[in-house]
Amino acid sequence: MGFLKDIRNLxxxxxxxxxxxxxxxxxxxxxxxxxxxxxxxxxxxxxxELELSVVLEGEAPYVVTHRETLSRVAMAGLRPGATIPVRVxxxxxxxxxxx
Length: 99
Description:
This protein is an alpha+beta fold. The chain is about 25% helix and about 45% strand. The radius of gyration is 15 Å and the shape is flat. The termini are far apart.
């Protein structure tokens, strides 16, 4: 039981970390340059690699390659040329999350 409790604790810590980043992340806009399927589905959802040009207010645009597992529904709006909202980790501008 100790092992399963440790795993559950790690999952809770990871979720808390994601939650903190989404709340505290800097809002930005990202233009999609490329969407690539990595071939690694998770629970039938595709893991994709996005090449993005990110624009933070008051800063020059920069390019990020971001990998994330997304639902097939979310994938529908991810096309080259589209601009999407992202939240950038304030401590590491190369780390971001969609939305």
